[in-house]
Design brief:
Rossmann fold; 19 strands; EC 2.7.7.65; 5-stranded parallel β-sheet; binds magnesium ion; phosphoprotein; about 15% strand; diguanylate cyclase; globular; diguanylate cyclase activity; binds 3'-deoxy-guanosine-5'-triphosphate
């Protein structure tokens, strides 16, 4: 992805926070407007919401929202804390709210994409029960999915023709007949070259015949009897993962400039992130700076051979398992075998067929990533494990020092989690851990690191973030997470977390962790469900 489009995505992501906050302001105003005589308790809430709006809007450079918020704040200074709201003030505030409404509205009218509240392609719901569809949409929105529900097969078909969804969640009997949902999907898939992944649900029919038919028309999942939203969202998350696969980082070392250029073009065309060097002496710097996932090495170069370079690469623990692929006009099998025995993984003979090259890179890359994942990720949540989180923290401290940038570290711990396990069972507890991890992934920046620090403890590393901003971000996540309705069978409940946050002050990672931990303890002692920033 180019820098520009990355920036644009980031901008859209943050624009969403501003528009969400504008909605909070407008909702609070609505309560005051509905009953001005009883408005007093809402005054401070409105002021806090408007203040937050202005801060967000300034930070994310949405000037019109910032101006509208400023105006509201100024008018609020004239409405004293324990006075009634005069008609004049009410009128003035109403005008400012209108201005805010207008700029929220106008942006989306002018340009359907910006600010785009959600980043992914939509999820379509075709459920027999409208009410559960509405509930599902709400839950999906919490996780940043854009979802729409359809009432009839025709509506669903029309929507798919307009825009292909990420996945469809459909009842087997959607449309009325016993398996009319499957017929609809069979028909729908004929219109698309690549099938849409489908999640089927049924309360009545779990027979092998029905399951087979569902699976043949793209049914990736078959839930019988129907499941709760929590489980479904996890599934939906897995089908949308394809969208977010990072391009492979491939380092190419070839002394021929023309050959290197050719490789670069082929790799970039295949959507990979290529870094090309032509001087073998640059290899150490390139490894450090680019941190490749796959290395392509020319066999013969002036000054040294690819095999020698491979040996040097393998001497560093960090790059022990990075796949190395040799490139050469060499077609002597004996020499190739010798090269492989010296730490290479594969051999491609020049001239390399681009298709073959890309296929090899994909295979090697996928395998390397899954091996790496075993080493550095937690299997329940897919987040970084404890050891790797600490390693990343060390790295970010080095970077913060070099670049003279701020850095924050947060520890998150679920509140009364033991009780959740005791009441609803361990599997539901596990699901909550996964749901929080998805929630964090969804809401933090790509450059932030999220780790599972321990059982029900998570760690966030927020590079280039000032403590006040970190606190706002984590607080917003905390608020939203606490609103999320968790389901266990037909019981519903909510879960909260507490957080301790520390800003790096030139100290060691250990001391930073300890300060965050102490702040977490303060949050717990203060009644939980809050964020504490460690004192300077
Ligand atoms: P507090 O608000 O003080 O943090 O209370 P708590 O109940 O969350 O804390 P406590 O340390 O007493 O209990 C943590 C619980 O987390 C106990 C343990 O069973 C549960 N837990 C830890 N790891 C896992 C896991 O992987 N899955 C599940 N389901 N539960 C876990
Ligand atoms: Mg806990």
């Amino acid at each position: 992805m180019s820098d520009e489009s990355q920036k644009e995505k980031l901008r859209q992501h943050f624009a969403r926070r501003v528009t969400t906050q504008a909605r909070v302001v407008l909702d609070t105003w609505q309560k005051i407007h509905d009953d001005p005589a009883q408005a007093q308790p809402y005054r401070n809430a409105l002021e806090a919401a408007a203040d937050k709006l202005v801060r967000y809007a300034r930070r994310f450079e949405m000037e019109s929202h910032a101006r509208a918020g400023d105006r509201i704040l100024e008018q609020l200074t004239q409405w004293h804390t324990d006075a009634a709201l005069s008609t004049d003030h009410q009128q003035a505030l109403e005008e400012s709210m209108e201005a805010l409404r207008h700029c929220t509205q106008r942006r989306s009218d002018e340009n359907n994409d910006a600010p785009h509240p959600f980043r992914r392609t939509p999820v379509y719901l075709a459920l027999a029960d409208e009410e559960s569809a509405a509930r599902m949409i709400k839950q999906l929105e919490f996780f940043g999915f854009r979802a729409s529900a359809y009432q009839t097969p025709n509506e669903l078909m029309a929507a798919c023709a307009l825009s292909k969804p990420e996945t469809i969640l459909i009842d087997i009997n959607f449309g009325g007949g016993a398996s009319s949902g499957i017929s609809t999907i069979e028909h729908l898939q004929e219109q698309h070259d690549t099938p849409i992944p489908i999640i089927f649900m049924s309360d009545e029919d779990g027979s092998i015949e029905t399951r087979l038919r569902a699976s043949r028309c793209g049914g990736e999942e078959f839930f019988y009897p129907a499941v709760d939203p929590g489980q479904l969202i996890e599934k939906i998350e897995t089908y949308t993962h394809g969208n977010t696969v990072e391009p492979y980082r491939v380092l190419v070392l070839d002394d021929s400039r023309a050959q290197a250029k050719f490789m670069e073009t082929v790799l970039k065309k295949a959507g990979m992130n290529a870094h090309i060097i032509t001087d073998p002496m640059q290899i150490i710097t390139a490894l450090e700076e680019f941190s490749p996932e796959i290395i392509l090495l020319d066999m013969y170069m002036p000054g040294c051979t690819g095999m020698e370079i491979a040996r040097v690469i393998r001497q560093q623990d960090k790059f022990h398992s990075v796949p190395i692929i040799y490139l050469s006009a060499e077609d002597d099998v004996g020499k190739q075998l010798h090269a492989m025995s010296l730490g290479g993984d594969d051999f491609l003979t020049k001239p390399v067929d681009p298709k073959h090259l890309i296929a090899t890179l994909h295979n090697r890359g996928r395998r390397a990533r899954s091996l790496l994942a075993l080493m550095i990720r937690d299997s329940l949540t897919g987040l970084f494990n404890h050891t790797h989180t600490l390693y990343l923290l060390e790295q970010e401290i080095v970077r913060a020092r070099q670049k003279d940038q701020p850095l924050c570290f947060a520890m998150i711990d679920l509140d009364y989690f033991k009780k959740v396990n005791d009441t609803f069972g361990h599997p539901i507890g596990d699901r909550i851990l996964r749901s929080l991890s998805m929630f964090l992934k969804q809401r933090l920046r790509k450059t932030d690191h999220i780790g599972r620090y321990g059982g029900e403890e998570f760690a966030l590393i927020l590079p280039n973030t000032r403590p006040g901003d970190a606190r706002n971000v984590v607080n917003e996540i905390r608020e939203r997470f606490s609103e999320l309705v968790q389901e266990a069978g037909d019981r519903q409940f909510k879960v909260t977390f507490s957080c301790g946050l520390a800003a790096w002050q030139g100290d060691s990672s250990q001391s930073l962790c300890e300060r965050a931990d102490r702040a977490l303890y303060v949050s717990k002692a203060h009644g939980r469900n809050c964020v504490t920033l460690a004192e300077e």
